[in-house]
What does this fold into?
Amino acid sequence: MNILVINGSPMEKSRTRGIAKLVKELLEEKGVMVAYYDLGIEKLPLFPGDEDNKENDSLQKLYKEAKEADGFFITSPEYHNGMSGVLKNALDFLGGTHFKHKPAAIAAASGGSKGGINALNNMRTVLRGLYAFVLPDQFVSDPECYDENYDLVDRESVERLQVITDLLVDLTEKLGVKQEQNVR
Ligand SMILES: Cc1cc2nc3c(=O)[nH]c(=O)nc-3n(C[C@H](O)[C@H](O)[C@H](O)COP(=O)(O)O)c2cc1C
It folds into this structure.
């Protein structure tokens, strides 16, 4: 099983990356093969890229890792009541061929004051458009959940992400079998 974890923040110092890094660790502890794609590091062209941009290394890496993934864990900051622009731009390069009938877990970093839900709902809507199975469980964090290095250290958050990653692994296993059955 191969799960692609995406950090959807463009920031150099990012709380969303704190979620993505922790999710990667939790999945690896479960023996899952994890690919990690960081939109604060990878430099994607704007969609639609011109013909030259199709050879962009970051874009080719995104296509490859999304195609090979059996499941996804996608994270985003909430920016102006939605997911980040870099994440939406990345998802616009992808389609049903990458996501169809694959499970996807979602998580968001908010600025506090009960933020984050709009980004999660926005991600859920967009991923439904890509034909992913988005888990009903989701995760949102406030700035207080992080230490000064933006590592996610809050105990309840770690426990919640354990539950969600367990569910993601379980569903990815089950849907993987189903897809094989569909192929026959
Ligand atoms: C342009 C911008 C818009 C933001 N809009 C919201 C918002 O609508 N709701 C919210 O809860 N936080 C908002 N925030 C705060 C971020 O969600 C918060 O700082 C989060 O930790 C950012 O994650 P990052 O560090 O991974 O980029 C906004 C921050 C920026 C830079």
